[in-house]
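Chapter review: from sequence to fold.
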Amino acid sequence: QWLERTLDDSAIRRIDIPEMFLLTDALLILLDDVTNGIVVFPAMIRSQLQQELPFMATENIIMKLVHKGVSRQEAHEWIRVLSRETVQAMKMEGAKNDLIERIKMDDFFVGASPLDITCFWLTRIAETDMG
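The token string follows.
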């Protein structure tokens, strides 16, 4: 009862708290409007994931290389070059994302074995595609 009927408490209780409930109600109505009738296409999601996953995996590859003693800047530059080549092939020729294959074939990565995590996840996604 210390702050009852004082200016610093009564304004909060009479104005802000009801406004927060009205805001919450408005957000929930908006969320319902956005999600009501949403259609999800799993095959399209899987396709987009397959196209982007190799790019997302490059951070793990760089970290693995750095852990093995390779310069982070040098590893990043090699992956950047291969990524740009891959994107160019995807956009200009309609090719599939073959970034991981490019990394496997590049002499810079031979013997570094940076692909354990990436290959594991790509295999898992490929298995879920089939099953």
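Two observations follow directly from the output. The radius of gyration is 25 Å. The longest helix spans residues 7-35.
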